[in-house]
Write a structure and sequence with these properties.
Elements lengths: L1 H20 L1 H4 L8 H19 L6 E2 L6 E2 L11 H4 L6 H28 L3 H13 L1 H4 L5 H8 L1 H13 L1 H17 L5
Helix pairs in contact: 1-5, 1-6, 3-5, 5-6, 5-8, 5-9, 8-10, 9-10
């Protein structure tokens, strides 16, 4: 019972840490104005979200390059359900919300994985979650939002795999869901 009452506190802790770590994009009007985010993902997400908001399946856009496929470009994560949550936002805000949510998701997943796989207490598990969520691997992929989204599912998939080895009927379907979400995020590698 203690773990269940502690979990909302852990979620709040990771949420506060995530917003504090990314305060410049989370709490200001600043955007990621370089690299893949600015040159690649903002234009593509704008075209994809515009089509989805209009009720259209985003197959193609004539507005990027000399025309570009949207649905066929897996990197856009068009079929990834968390991306649907931000369709109504402007594009930089959509990417920012996705970054915050996925870093938070990665931290919580790593916390749970450390508890199950390493059998550590709460504080070391929090440290593991913080190190993964705010470490170099996640931080280096913030500009490639699809890679960040896919990486955020990794600790959950390992946690679910370990759980499925103990109780396959209960956890194997959830492992399939997590793997499907990782595939739909747009960066399967």
């Amino acid at each position: 019972m203690r773990r269940l009452t502690l979990f909302p506190v852990l979620i709040a802790l990771f949420a506060v840490l995530t917003v504090a770590f990314f305060w410049r994009i989370a709490l200001t009007d600043l955007i990621l104005a370089r690299g893949d985010t600015f040159a690649y993902f903002y234009p593509y997400w704008h075209a994809r979200d515009g089509a989805l908001a209009a009720g259209d399946l985003p197959l193609w856009t004539p507005d990027l390059f000399m025309g570009a496929p949207l649905l066929a470009n897996l990197q856009l994560g068009t079929l990834y359900p968390p991306n649907w949550l931000t369709i109504s936002l402007n594009t930089p805000d959509s990417v920012t919300v996705s970054i915050i949510l996925h870093v938070l998701w990665a931290g919580i997943g790593t916390y749970l994985l450390a508890r199950r796989a390493l059998k550590v207490r709460t504080l070391p598990a929090i440290v593991a979650g913080v190190l993964f969520a705010f470490g170099g691997e996640i931080g280096s992929h913030v500009e490639q939002i699809n890679q960040l989204q896919g990486m955020a599912w990794l600790p959950w998939m390992i946690w679910l795999l370990l759980a499925a080895l103990q109780e396959p009927r209960r956890y194997l379907p959830w492992l399939g869901v997590a793997w499907g979400m990782q595939l739909l995020s747009g960066h399967t590698q």
